[in-house]
Glycoside hydrolase family 51 protein (Melanomma pulvis-pyrius CBS 109.77), 336 residues
Amino acid sequence: PPQVKYWALGNEIWGPWQVAQLSAPAYSALAYQYAKALKLLDPSITLILCGETGYSSWDHTVLTSCVKHDVHGLGGDPTKRLIDMHSIHVYTADGDAVANAVAPRAAERAIQMAMALVDLARIENGVPAAVPRPTICFDEWNVWDPVRAPGEQGAEEKYTLSDALAVGVWLNVFVRQAASVGMANIAQSVNVISPLMTTPTGVVRQTTWWPLLLFSRFMRGHSVALSVRAPEYLGRTNPAWIRGTIETPFLDASAALGEDGWVTLAVVNVHEERDFEVELKGVKEGKVDVYTVTGESAAVVNTEGEEKVGIKESSWDGVGKYTFGKSSLTLLRWKA
């Protein structure tokens, strides 16, 4: 169809629920030929390879097979790539509030590992440096507990404040990994594992709605590298392999500098009991806009007629230390 510029080369083809399920080698052979055909038809489109989690044998096989240099599929242009993005899907959840909130760190490690597999494929296949690296299409992500919200029963989650903090960490991950992530899409947007739930009389804005609103409104421009020193959560993680592969600090942060000159700093305090007084270097003294998402406890939820979690707006003069409250997401904004 005209003007459709993003094309996925299949979705979760590795899954037994797919009518067209294939093995990784079989999928790779088919996807590569379709990729050539599509790019010959329209070189301007973006093609997305079907990945899994970013750290599976499927990802390794399909990337090694498809991330290679083929001038025949690109009209003879030695500076173009055939595969533009590699899709990965990850959902996180845990019954413990803190383990739940830090679980998206697995997604950060998944992005890093997937990009390492991209680089390995480029090295092994001799892809010229002039050809741009494919990026990650994180086209399914969210907090979802299939036991709490079974898919066969509609997957209607009732999200807690802990889940909102987890979404805040998810969004921080995407900002920190902006150089590697070409696209990220929450799954889904209404009713099914969603920040918005319809009712016969209106719409319930779940706890997870608020971090999405704040990031979409303010976290724009260029990501800013941060140096964060904070105590680390050392308890159980889900998945368990998080503990041995990436840190899980109680304070999770990201920042961006907008084209309008405004700096946005997002900090999630996942600790259920402790506030953290923090020295923030680089904050300009003067009026700092503050947006806070928190609640009475990490377990609170929003329901129809009772919104226990929302956004509290305030200001700070940028002088001295700032205290990030327990179980909270805070956005600080100031003009650079």
Q: What stands out?
A: The helical segments are 24-41, 57-66, 97-102, 105-124, 161-176, 209-218, 242-245.
